[in-house]
Amino acid sequence: MTGRTVALAVAPGALHPWDLYELGVVASIFGTPQPDLSDSWYELKVCAVTPEQHAQPIGFGTYLRAEHGLADLLAADTVIVPSVAHDFVTAEREIPPELVDALAAAHRRGARMVALCDGIFALAAAGILDGRRATVHWEHAEVLSRRYPDIEVNESVLYVDDGDVLTSAGMAAALDLCLHLVRRDFGAVIANRLARRMVIPPHRSGGQAQFVELSIPPRADDGIGPVLQWAIANLDQPLTVDTLAAKANMSPRTFFRHVQQATGATPMQWLLGQRLSHAQSLLESSDFGIDRISSMSGLGTAANLRRHFAGVIGVSPAEYRRTFERREPLHPG
Fold first, then answer.
1. Mean pLDDT across the stretch 87-111?
2. Closest residue by Cα to residue 113 from 160, 145, 158
3. Looking at the domain assignment, is residue 203 inside a domain?
4. Quick check: 52 and 35 in contact, CB under 8 A?
5. Antiparallel, parallel or unpaired: β 112-116 and 165-168
6. Neighbours of 97 (CB within 10 A)
7. Is 323 within the bounds of a domain?
8. How confident is the model at residue 330 (pLDDT cuts 50, 70, 90)?
9. pLDDT score for 239
10. Which structural domain, as residue segments, surrounds residue 243?
11. Phi, psi at residue 112, to the nearest 5°?
12. Residues 136 and 64 in one domain
């Protein structure tokens, strides 16, 4: 992993109620040691421009006292900026220059930079996103694009992983991105185990340093949820749109439309993502050969697996597996 220290950079000002959720997400994931990993888990530090001087009101009778200052932010391995106050988004007030300078310096030093929802405005002010792909909640996309035209903004995805800079849309997407970071750092087994503890579906990304298009899992009562869950459990089978549509008691055209509305992808695009995610998990957690993994994930031949890995994830299966070779054995939770 990139390093253990995570700085949560809190800008001054009152937040919306939903913004408080992001603070809880970061604290729950990065500030709570996991069983069997307490010695190697993250060290979370809440950082502010003026730490410890007084409790900062963040809205709705809630106060936050940051114990750490910008020096700790500068030394962190990962810097996470949650949502900022609305007047920073509207430019009625400028983000404190000390914070902007610290974010820019941390990025120059090599820290992994993460923005949750409109925390992206702080990274943008620091020039960190110039020439990069990023996402933000769709309500803020137009404002962000207008104020920072050098950023390639796409509001139609949950998050974007651009290697050392990652951005997410609002609320639930922040949780998706944080779990994605855990997957990058500790592998799918730990990320899925953490997801189970949080009573949420495992979040499987499209791989590291990729433009990630994911969707909120469909509801069980929407007609396609059970079918997609069945497909995930039968990835080694030759699944087609016709097969899945019949199982959902829909015409192929109707099924196609429902899946696209629910997931943002065509059925075959969604299915390929699930197959690759399963292959990733097998590469991380087993010593199966490439041929067997190709068959178990429904990708057919090893050549197909290599081709899709190169096209979507950007590395070969062998290179991906080597990323996890040095991880210590994990104990099931």
1. 93
2. 160
3. no
4. no
5. parallel
6. 11
7. yes
8. very low
9. 92
10. 217-333
11. -80, 125
12. yes
Q: Are residues 65 and 164 in the same domain?
A: yes
Tell me the pTM.
0.65
Residue 11: CB atoms within 10 Å:
22
Domain end call among 166, 197, 228: 197
CA pair distance 206, 251, nearest whole angstrom:
29
Residue 314: give its domain's CATH number: 1.10.10.60
**Whole-number Å distance between alpha carbons of 102 and 79:** 10
Both 30 and 148 in a single domain?
yes
Dihedral in degrees, nearest 10, Cα atoms 174, 179, 181, 186: 170
Confidence check: pLDDT of 333 > 60: no
Euclidean distance between CA atoms 64 and 46, whole angstroms: 9
- Average pLDDT score, the chain: 83
DSSP conformation letters of 279-323: HHHHHHH----HHHHHHHTT--SHHHHHHHIIIIISS-HHHHHHH
Helix or strand or coil: residue 77? Answer: coil
pLDDT at 19 (0 to 100): 72
